[in-house]
Automatic annotation (TrEMBL), chain A:
InterPro entries linked: Acyl-CoA_DH_CS, Acyl-CoA_Oxase/DH_mid-dom, Acyl-CoA_Oxase/DH_mid-dom_sf, AcylCo_DH-like_C, AcylCo_DH/oxidase_C, AcylCoA_DH/ox_N, AcylCoA_DH/ox_N_sf, AcylCoA_DH/oxidase_NM_dom_sf
Top-rank lineage group of the source organism: Eukaryota
Residue span(s) of domain Acyl-CoA dehydrogenase/oxidase C-terminal: 258-399
GO molecular-function terms, A-Z: 3-methylbutanoyl-CoA dehydrogenase activity; flavin adenine dinucleotide binding
Name of the featured protein: Isovaleryl-CoA dehydrogenase
Catalysed reactions, semicolon-separated: (2S)-2-methylbutanoyl-CoA + oxidized [electron-transfer flavoprotein] + H(+) = (2E)-2-methylbut-2-enoyl-CoA + reduced [electron-transfer flavoprotein]
Keywords, ordered alphabetically: FAD, Flavoprotein, Oxidoreductase
Keyword Membrane among record annotations: no
Record's keyword annotation contains Endoplasmic reticulum: no
Acyl-CoA oxidase/dehydrogenase middle domain location: 140-240
Family as reported in the entry's similarity comment: Belongs to the acyl-CoA dehydrogenase family.
Segments forming domain Acyl-CoA dehydrogenase/oxidase N-terminal: 23-134
From TrEMBL, chain B:
Electron transfer flavoprotein alpha/beta-subunit N-terminal domain residues: 32-224
GO terms, biological process: carboxylic acid catabolic process
Top-level taxonomic group: Eukaryota
Entries under InterPro entries matching the protein: ETF_a/b_N (IPR014730), ETF_b (IPR012255), ETF_beta_N (IPR033948), Rossmann-like_a/b/a_fold (IPR014729)
Cellular location(s): Mitochondrion matrix
Protein name (Swiss-Prot/TrEMBL): Electron transfer flavoprotein alpha/beta-subunit N-terminal domain-containing protein
Keyword tags: Electron transport, Transport
Transmembrane intervals: none
This protein's GO CC annotations: mitochondrial matrix
Principal subcellular localization: mitochondrion
Amino acid sequence: MSAAAVDLDAAADIASMDLFNPTEEHAMLRETVRSFSDSEIRPQALEYNRKEMFNRELFNKVGDLGLLGVTVDEEYGGSGMDAVAACIVHEEMSAADPAFTLSYLAHSMLFVNNLSQNGNHEQKLKYLPDACTGAKVCGMGMSEPGAGTDVLGMKTTATKSADGSTYTLNGNKMWITNGTLDGETTGDAYLIYARTGEKRSEVSMFLVDKNMPGFTLGQKIEDKLGMRASMTAEIVFDNVVVPAENLVGEEHGAALCMMRNLEIERIALAAMSLGIARRSVEVMNNYAAERQAFGESINSFGQMQRHIADSYAEYMAGRAYTYNVARHLDLASYGNGLDADGVKLFCAKMGKDVADRAIQVLGGNGYVGEYHVEQLWRDAKLLEIGGGTNEAHHKNMVRDLKRHHTTLK
Amino acid sequence: GTSPHPPSKMKVLVGVKRVIDYAVKVRIAADKKGVELANVKMSMNPFCEIAVEEAIRMKEGKTATEIVAVSVGPKNAQEQIRTALAMGADRGVHVTTDMRLDQELQPLAVAKLLKEIVEKEAPDVVLLGKQSIDGDCAQTGPMLAAMLGWPQATMASELTFADGGVTAERETDNGTEVIQVGTPLVVTADLRLNEPRYAKLPNIMKAKKKKIEAIDAASLGVDLSPRIEVVEMNDPPTRAAGIVVEDVTALVDKLKNEASVIA
């Protein structure tokens, strides 16, 4: 048999494709975000970490750049880009300040993207433009004090009125990023998951606004290990009456909203770990080249070489996995859960490990705030818990693997 | 000369050069004929960014109505034009050449090429960076002005357009000079002229639809051959450690006899 002719043009195209910046627009986006992150986000990281405060001014600047609605239709004030663009923004911002990026994620992915994918035209028109400019800072409430990984074990209820015109919400939500912006009141708007039926899966999603009677801040969560500049809170619903127009999607149909949004959420969180890893590799690589011991740069020593090389390779592996999954992700669909869980599972641990090695390479200096890596290490740990614990990913992935992937492609 | 367009509807031609990114640690190539360019991050020359920003401000201030971004360079120079479009320029002109931009293609040739583009586009203002961070020649702007027979405001740190002319503040070694110039003119931008904006995401998306016209440099009938040949390039000598001297006499002796900086 004769070999098929090689299509050299196709081969050249394959070589010239940049997995991390598939188009010029993606490259320009990365350039903008990196430049902004270096000059505006990085310098405030230590101070806001110390103060455990949300940097609203910086958030507004991010809004000016048009980044708050990365995945939203231009019609509603967004930029209409894809999952790869979302990864780029999260990776670049996270390299500068993961805590600030987490607040950005809760707003842009958990509220803005979710509503953009699942809301109707009126709901989108009412909330998205302000959310895209940064006039409103928003979040999402799914977890509760008694239900995290077991999300359908939630106890917050939404009881429909007799005439069907309103729902009354009762319960509390916990670990809500952007749950407060000032430590005293709630943020501006949330997508809240609440039980509307007896069956476990009968959960619905509602839009709840700040100052709706009965909707209050329970408490700001203090003394977190990391992500300290991102304000986390418990929020409370005490007979909060919401109009039926605030139901997003179908009644009892929130599982669909969940499935759609969890994929981009996990990929964006994985991208945050990538940013942490990238910065850690840069810091340890540069430090090890300059720091001298026994008359040589410490990067001549095998243990340091191992830390740096292992970190680089793991980072690149995570990056390739994440961006490959992102470019196949259709934001309006679901069904790619296996790899969304997979990238988060891999990258969360990887980011933590790489940050840990960076501290080790820097020695005493790594233990100090000025050198940045200690913050990256503390922030990195959250990614193994938030947006899906490692254990949740294990559970989901095996469920998918045994059902749908008995042989792999 | 007379300006092609009325004072509130000026057309601005902005030059953008593709250079090694300012943050990159530049290395000499193995053959010592120049710097290593392979796999090195390239960006828009920082002074060109300032020029683009100024052009956009002219449009926002209702002095200009059209901004055309022009770059001379290889296929990838399109990236710099696209960035100018994302910042707010209206359309682009890409003069294509594979000559090395940091050595082979020299300011004289670039000025000649830009003259052809000026004659084609008929702008009222040509805005360039004062110099590029690779060659540091600072020649293209003044040469272009001379070829066109236009006045020039180089090293501009402030520009005020009014009544069909411009008041320009220039940064010189002796201090700031203020000049009054008519249009059309060539301006070169200095560091303090403005702080360039980030390309916002909605504008990055809009830039996709803006047109870039490609013109082969060879087709413009210009002699592009270099007049200067780089024979050898070396790293600067490693800086020797400083020493502490005993007293002023010792200092003067060293300055005279070792450093040879006083007679």
